[in-house]
User: Fold Nucleoside transporter YegT from Roseimaritima ulvae.
Amino acid sequence: MANPYESPEPESVDPTLADSGGKGGSLIITLLSVMMFLQFFAWGSWFATLSAAMDTNLLGAFIGGAYASAPIAAIFAPLFLGLIADRFFPSEKVMGVLMLVGGLIMLSIPAVATNAAEFAATSADSLRDASGVLDSEKFLEQQTNENSSGKLLVWLILAHLLCYMPTLGLGNTIAFTHIPHQDQFPKIRVWGTIGWIAAGLMLGAAGWSATYNIFWMGAISSIMLGVFCFFLPHTPPPLRGKPMDVRSLLMVDAFKLLADRNFFVFAVCSTLICIPLAYYYGMTASYLTQTGFVEAGATMTIGQMSEIFFMLLIPFFFRRLGVKMMIIIGMACWVIRYALFAYGAPSQVTWMLLLAVALHGICYDFFFVTGFMYTDQKAPKAIRGQAQSLLVFLTQGIGMFFGYRIMAGGDLFGVIPLNLTFGKYGEQVVSAPRYVESLKEARGDAASTSFFESFTQMFSRDLPEGVDQGLLTQTMAEWKDFWLSPAIMAALILVLFAVTFWDRTKTAPRDAE
Assistant:
């Protein structure tokens, strides 16, 4: 598999575009920056607030399966790249075709989601008692067993992500092929984060965070990127003509790094910490919406904004604190974030909820970015690509998959239950369907607002007076118990890492070789 973290061989660089000081260099930087912007705009336009859109339409039973599609696709993406994309076809064309196909798949999702929501609404009406109260537990069970459109919705999301996930590696390959120096990559990659932020802000301005318009926005931006890819410079398959290296494809040599005790501890803790991480990605938008934030998509961009800020500080802290302390700080912030979510729930304390979102920058950068740098230090040059792929496989693949399944109280292969709880902590928010109905009824039809009026509401929290206060109290109590579970998980993993990781290797950002 092509290594997305290292520059390709010099002969693969287009000489007409490699001069960073000339017009060609400026053009390629611009093209690659637009590519990154559109790539993460297309993902951020729907993924961040998917749970809010599904929850609002009474499809909470399918949130876990929808989000678990991402790690499944991440596991299979390296195999696709190693077997096909990196050997037979130009990278920009493969990426273009995948984005076009993925966009077309997403165009079919709104109709399926609408059918699923209609079935859910009909089911809810049939399960109300004489006083009109919905039996939430029976409702969720019925949706899981009988809502065929809801199941199809999950399959379509998986199909889209199977197209999208390989483009993350392809985009890096295209970028590293045509930039003359690796140190130019961060200023290109940062446009991906800006694209994610722009998608969230646009959702907020349009009032679409919890609507099926997120799928239209994702589909259109995916198709736009697919067309744009065919205007990117030619990027030959990096492994064309080379024999199939099964060892590299299956990361055999990288797995040998696990014989190093400290790297083994790091790899295990990295995998485990992604279980509580899944709670943030999978449930934050739904939670913020239920606490009264008008546009959760825009509110969550605070996390990406802080991510950019702390990303710039990583080299400074890395040299002064070292790997262990950086990762400990990152894990500790995850504990604090979930504790803020939990204890901010009963009274919906705005500053606690916003601070929890803002901590995302430290949570992500101090752990993941530091982890990639540590892996780069530990791995011999010949297998650095394998080592980075192994880390992605363990974290974004295995860890996140189990995280999403545990988050939703799901199971493994329909046999092994994954409803991990600590007493009552971690139990599902079963009153959510009833509360969401009450919240929607209290809000009524939203009055049309201008762009600037919508923008001012993006970071505001407003629960309508007509919402059922008893149901609000019950639901927020359940959310408190729910968020304490990932807080406990993160704390236990933090202690495990602090006690068992003692790598004294001198670490610093690796110089270009």
